[in-house]
Structure prediction request, 456 residues.
Amino acid sequence: MDSFIKHGTRRKFLQQSATVGVSLLGLELLAACGGAANAGSGTVTASINNLPPSTNPGAVYVFNQTVKQFQQSHPGTKIVGKNDPYDPTTYFARLAAKQTEDAVESWFTEPPLLIKKHAVADITDLAKGWKYFDSYNPGISSIAKDPASGKIYGVPVTGYALGIWYNRKLFKAAGLDPDKPPTTWEEFRGYAKQLTSSSVAGFAETSTSNQGGWHFTNWMYTVGGDMQSADGTKATFNSDKGVSVLQLLKDMRFTDQSIKKQQLLTQDQTLQLLATNKAAMVVMAPDMLDTLKSQYKANLEDFGMAPMPQNGGNAALTGGNIFIFNPKSSREAIKTAFDFVIYSQFDLSVMENNLALKSSAGQTVGAPSNILFTGEFQDTINKLNLKYANVPTGNYTTFANSKLTLRPEPRTETQKMYAALDSVVQTTLSNANADPKALLDQAAQQFQKILDQAAS
Prediction:
């Protein structure tokens, strides 16, 4: 899910996750590491947009320490960090005005349009020169590529797969084994019904701020459905499989009465319901673990995470952030920016240092991280997370060991599609007489007009 709300929350988490108990002296390093674009003869300067805000001095300190170490290990380079979050409503205008950084942290949903509009640099040679690019999970690497040419246009840096967060304490109270979360739709529906009481909803679902459409897509993947045609020109979510998703939710809401009656919920609200024992299961990504602890002071022993229950799809939705590069920048600046992204995000010594800082500061380390890569590199990352883990990792075993296919978000006009489906989910969960097929047909007809405009 890559809406402003979703990714604002995710960006906030990523920036706060680096916060440590340090002084404002970290801010002084900014002056030394940033500065004018001309850094002297023979020096290549590259700008990047993911400098944390000054309100988070610990994260600024960590960022600038990484910059300092990079510049020392890469003589003749200079990195200028800017706190300038990606904004799709201004990106093209800023690119035309030459105001865009050399490296921009964007969202998984953005590359298709940016590639089509020639608004992102081809980094195929750089990516293929990095020894771990081929270790990306295929569902992740496809996000960075143009499916027609196979060229590479970005570096995925943070990824998530949606799953089921659940309250282990409520599972036990309902006579359910918290180490055996539901694996199928049928089990999920049965668990939700058994978990429901006068004070607890078995399940709470989102239905606003584009999050209803986002979660609908995730459920669609669990049944093996598609949201769009392969070329992204046709809306296909009004299929029998799409109807089955809505029918499941409708039956749970009105027949079983196991879904929270309150509607128009966002992810922040469903997380609060989970944390305060008012909902037993919700759909979320692993990084919500940090918020459970920091915002709700929750006992992490009481919560577990499981892969999405399946109904033939053997898949779940994956999303996250990806670095793209300014096509108007010099090749030298792009290479320096690329090298810094790889160093700051995937250098194992940098990773270990940041994990140690987080753990020593009492921030959560050890949430499932089986998303971006496969093979030896992912195994090494997992071992580092376990080395510094300060959370009950055994509670996430089923999710961490999941072999589900990770399917990226649809490629064309994703946010507008999610918005069109919000009202579909809202109506399904609030009107016992709702007709799932009619709702989906209407939404598909409306969204098809948007796809037709995008293709013209």
Remarks:
- Confidence is low (pLDDT under 50) at residues 2-39.
